Amino acid sequence: QVQLVESGGGLVQAGNSLRLSCAASGGTFDIYTMAWFRQAPGKEREFVAGISRSGKYTNYADAAKGRFTISRDNTKNTVFLQMNNLKPEDTAVYYCARRRTPVGSDIPTGPPAYEYWGQGTRVTVSS
After folding, report:
1. Nearest-angstrom CA–CA distance, 95 and 42
2. Residue 10, pLDDT score
3. pLDDT for the residue numbered 62
4. 127 vs 124: CA distance, rounded Å
5. Does residue 4 contact residue 22 with C-beta atoms inside 8 Å?
6. Nearest to residue 98, comparing CAs of 30, 11, 17?
7. If I label 52, which of 23, 43, 72, 109 is the partner at 20 to 30 A Cα–Cα?
8. What is d(CA 4, CA 27) in angstroms, rounded to the nearest whole number?
9. Which residues of 88-127 are buried (b: 16+ CB within 10 A; e: fewer)?
10. What is the rounded distance in angstroms from the CA atom of residue 33 to the CA atom of residue 122?
11. Integer Cα distance of 29 and 4 in angstroms
């Protein structure tokens, strides 16, 4: 059974940084694209960043470009999201997700492409 467990969320002031981690267990980690999504209150879940199996390729939402960095450590079955210069509009529950299939080098941005999800970690950015 695949499990994804996020950590690293919290309450920070605008301009500060957080590093989220997602530890995966079960299945084979390094053959799947991984991604981070977020969901703010009253809004739909949205793509934040994704990373290919090897870590060579990444994809970012416009809101994340230049501030967030996704990375992975396949030796530790963990994916990270470094978030710098946080803004109040980044406030949301952040979820990591594993792609539904191991094939393909593209990084989908739609939630249906991902099969396994963590329970989420809450990020609150105060102004």
Report:
1. 16
2. 98
3. 98
4. 10
5. yes
6. 30
7. 43
8. 11
9. eebbbbbbbbbbeeeeeeebbbebebbebbbebbebebee
10. 23
11. 11
